Structure formats: structure tokens, C-alpha cells
Amino acid sequence: MLAAMAEPPPPPPKLPPLAAVRVFEAAARHQNFTRAGEELGMTQAAVSYQIRLLEDRVGAALFLRQPRQVVLTPLGQRLAGPLSRALHDIGSVFRAVCEENRTALTISALQTMAITWLSPRLAQFQIENPQVAVRVRTSQHLVDFATEAVDLALRYGPGGWPGVAAEKLFACHYAPLCTPELRERLHLREPADLLRAPLLSPEESSWRVWFADLGLDAPRQGGLAMSLEMQAMNVQAAMRGHGVAMAVPELFAYDIAAGRLVFAVEHAIRDRWSYWLVYPPARQREHKIRRFRDWILAEARAAELALPVMAGSKGLIHPSS
Amino acid sequence: MLAAMAEPPPPPPKLPPLAAVRVFEAAARHQNFTRAGEELGMTQAAVSYQIRLLEDRVGAALFLRQPRQVVLTPLGQRLAGPLSRALHDIGSVFRAVCEENRTALTISALQTMAITWLSPRLAQFQIENPQVAVRVRTSQHLVDFATEAVDLALRYGPGGWPGVAAEKLFACHYAPLCTPELRERLHLREPADLLRAPLLSPEESSWRVWFADLGLDAPRQGGLAMSLEMQAMNVQAAMRGHGVAMAVPELFAYDIAAGRLVFAVEHAIRDRWSYWLVYPPARQREHKIRRFRDWILAEARAAELALPVMAGSKGLIHPSS
DNA sequence: GGCAAGCATAAGGCACCCTTATGGCAGGCG
DNA sequence: CGCCTGCCATAAGGGTGCCTTATGCTTGCC
Prior knowledge:
The structure is a homodimer of 321-residue chains.
Chain A: H1 18-30, H2 33-40, H3 44-58, E1 63-66, E2 69-72, H4 74-103, E3 104-109, H5 111-128, E4 133-138, E5 152-157, E6 165-178, H6 180-186, E7 199-200, H7 205-213, H8 228-239, E8 244-247, H9 253-257, E9 262-263, E10 269-279, H10 287-305, E11 315-317
Parallel strand pairs in A: 3-4, 3-5, 7-8, 10-11
Antiparallel strand pairs in A: 1-2, 5-10, 6-8, 6-9, 6-10
Helix pairs in contact in A: 1-2, 1-3, 1-4, 2-3
Chain A binds a DNA duplex (30 and 30 nucleotides) through residues 1-3, 19, 32-34, 42-50, 52-53, 65-70.
């Protein structure tokens, strides 16, 4: 209050003390200080104090103290209606926003992840949790919870981020994928068979690593790291029978399970980077966070289990430093 | 807060902390905590504190802290509009009520006083003070400022009331009044002439006292005290030439000044009771109170001066116990 | 006449909130 | 590239506003 006292005539704040307003509204509604105090969880004396405060501010009585009751003065009546309305509005919008916050869930995910993995599964989550309104926001860069209005994020990376809770969704592998028709037509049975197959983006480094892991020379050497978007496009092409795509099978578990995609040959290499569920640790206990967390972790497990075991493959993509 | 802590789950109050709401509204308007603090006369740290408080209550961020600025989250935007509106409404109705309180003036007066003395003069006050809205409320009993919504009152009595500021408007006298025509027609010159004149309510004690004061016997002895209403009726009758009324000439100074009434003979007795301006001493300094006070005291002086000097008459009505 | 209901008032204490002070971060600028 | 500035977060500390308890007063009711 020191600043307010700097000027001799403290410019009267346009707004009355709002705590007193709240008390007045309750008192006006009950026409009874004691009852108002009960509603507000305070004593009758406190109500009396606040009402007096407000009356001093207005400069006139708002209640007439009659023997067994208090009644509003004309001035008090003038105040009570609009104030009650305004406080009701404030309460309403607050409840609405709290409710929205409680139910709306904004998820940030990489475009590819959102399209290929998340959205096909999200429908089921919506069915199981109709009260939660899920919004997916795609972005390319890592999200900062302090700067972006996002509840949780699906990240792709090595893990170990500071300041966030991160739970691994699934480890990533790289394996050649194609349609079952293509595999049959080309008689793909063992890794070396791929050397004569139409590879999609054969210059990508993942192909080289994959072949090298088997002691084979890649048909075309290249050093380009494959972007996730390119990977998704390649898989789309592969799914139309245009060739074999080197991709993360976990991302396409649905297509594999549905028979639209198969492993061209049974060999996968490990990616040190994984997909993670990431969220602010402070919000761990929130219902909606927990709910989504449990669901997506279960989905990730299911997706992993739906794939042939790829254990034993070495981590050759994104080697640690 | 002790009462709120009684129950393990303190039933979440429907309303958010209103002080925080006010701060939030300013911060949202400025999109700048420092500026909002200046507007509210507090420091940036305090703003930050209050915003955090509100965010904790909602359970979500309302502002995104970006390097050089803060911006509202979608949730914050949802809040800002309605809250700003509500606070504006509160401020509006408050200013309106303060203004009304500052300008509206409710005067309590006895019916007779209001009709015969106050209202003819009030028009002039309204002309001189157009910004003040005067309301006259008539009542028969003495007003209690704590119980009735009245700014000031005109009382008739002995004075010396506890707890109120009382200023004497004018002392009261009793004198016989009639039309000048009646006085001429009956050749009323000295008090004894009234013994043959048509007296209105001759049984009233004031007549007896008046005659006794002159050493005369009243034509009809009676002990009834005259009600003010009866007095006014008698004066009305007198003004129509129906007789001579024993009344308080101060109340009819206008009619006397206008020549509609004259003293039937030049003799008055004194009433110990007077008319007083009464108001709560706490409100002495209020502009509208002071304004009306000054005006009505001046009017009372003028009304007294307009009458023939009635000094020297003894106080025989309402003798002190 | 005692009792209950209801509000005002005084005294006292604590919690809240504000201030001061400091640090971090990013952008602008020389 | 380093300094400065604008802006916010955070910690520590203190003052006071507000609430509670206790008491008194008035009135209406049995």
C-alpha cells in the first residue's frame, strides 16, 4: 500500500474492495449477516466488518439494521442486483474454464507420429473417454511447456531431458517394409534378396547401416539421414506396392497388423532414439494427464507386442554421441 | 480460514480469489505484468504472485511466458473477456451508486411541515442545485437514521436529542391568523376583539393559553392539544375566510408575506418546541448535507425575518416538563 | 422475565500479500 | 561479442488487513 500512499489524494480506485463485494452479495441474498457468514465460511463479525467497509467506501448505508433483520437500503438494492450478476458471471466463466481445463487435453506431436501412429488410436481413446476433448497440435520442434499451451507431448529423441517427466513409449527399430504382394512377387526371403529389390530412398543412411549390420554392401552408398516425413512418404509409396521402405515398424504397427505391410525380410536394426511421452512433472497427478498417460502407454505396449520380436538387434541408428 | 480448513476436502469456493481476478484482468489488458502493476499501484512481483495464484486455482497456465512478453493462453483468453466485462460492470454500478449517493438527498419531514413550509421553498433549492435530486419522505414519527434510509430530517420538538446533530431552524410561535378581508370585516384591532370572532377549533388548548397570556378568558375552555394536521386544516379554512386559526405563523410565512394571511391581532405566544434540522453527525462534512444545511438555515432565517418580530412572547406551549 | 436471534464492537493474532532484492533470459546495439 | 535493457520469476521478510473470539445490546417471543 505504500505506493498508493505516495500521493496525498490517493486516486480512488475505480473498483471497490472485491472481497467486500462478495460478502455484500451474499448478505444481500440472505438478508442476514449470520447466514451469509455461514455460506462464506466466516463469522458474522467478519461479515459485519466487510459490509461496514463497503458502506464506508460508498459513503452511505447499504443495509438498514432493524431489530431482528437487516434490509437493503434503496442504494443497497441498486447495488445488489448488478453485483450478484457480475459475481455470478465471474463464477460461471471460472467454472467453465476449470471444466475445460479439466477435460480438454492438448497434445503436441510430430506430424508423422500424429498421422501414422496417434490419430488411428486416438479414436478409441475418445470412445473410452468421451468427457475428454483431445486436441492434437503438430509441430516440428521440441515443445516447451512453459511457452506453449500444451498438456503433454510425444517426443522423439534420446530421452534424459531435464525438467520434464518422460516415459518411453517404445524403442524404435528400422526394418524394410513392403506389401505382402511385392514380397511374394520378388520372392524376398533373406536380406540379400533386397539387393535386387526396388528400395525407396536407397541413399538414406539407414539402408547402409541395415545392410552393414548384416555384412552386406548397400547397393548405393549415401550418408543422408532420413527425415521422418520422408519416411512416412516412403511407407505410403511402399504400401502402394512401389517398393521397399526402410522405416520404423512401430509407427506402422496398425498397417502391419492389418496385413497392408509386411517385413520384406526378417531383420531389424535398433534405433537408440525412442518415442517418449513427455509432460510437466508438476501435473503428473492430474486426472486427465494420468488418464491419457495410462492409455497411451498401454497402446504403445500393445503396438510393440503386435510386432515380431526385434530383440537382439543392435543400436546402430543415432549412436550415443 | 480456520473454518474453511475444518473439512478435509475444503469445498472449493465457487468464486476465485477476486483480488487475483482484478490483477489478472489488468495484466491481460496490458499483456504486461509490469504495466499492470503500475496501473494497480503495486509491483511487478505482486502481479506475478497473484497471477500464479489464479493459475494454481484454475490448474492451468493463463499466460505463456515468452522471452520479452507474456501472452494469454487460450484458457486465459476465455477468461479475460468475461472477467473484464464483469469487473467493468461492478465498477460501473459502484460509480453509479456513489454518484447517486453523492447527489440524491432524502429528507424526512412531517407531513404538515413538508407541505406548508418545505415544498414551496424546495423548488428554489432545486433550481440552485440542479445536480442534487431531492426526495422528500413524509412520516409522522421521529426518524431513526440507523433504521431509515434518510439523509436528514426536519424534526419538531424540544431539541437535545442524543446522537444526532440538530440545528434549530426557527422557534415556533402561536398566533391567530386569518385573511385580511376577515380582519377588516370584523374590525379586529386588539386581542379582545377575537372573543367575538369565529375561531377555528376554539377548544384547542393553544387558544386558551393565548387568551390567558393576555389575561382574557377564552370563549370555550378546552384542553385538547392541536395536532399539526388539524392546524394545517384550520389554516386552509382560515385562508378561505372561514374564520381565525391559531397556528404557527412561521410555517405560513409565505402566505403571510403574500398577503393571503395576516395576523388577526398582533399578539403571539411562544412555543418551547422548535423545528430542527437533524442529521447524523458523522455525515456533517458531506457536500450534499452541508449544501442543504446551509440553504435551509438561510431559508429559515429569511422566513423568520419576513415575520413581524414576535420577541418577548413567553413560552407557554410545551412548557419544559 | 428469561431466552433466542441477530448485529455491533473491541481486542488480538495470524496469514496473506506486498515489497525489496536478485537472477535469468532474450533481444538490441555498439 | 559483450554490455545493456526490458521483462518476468523467485526468495526472503515484514506489515497489516482481515478474521476469530468474546461480549454487549436490542428486540421479539414464550
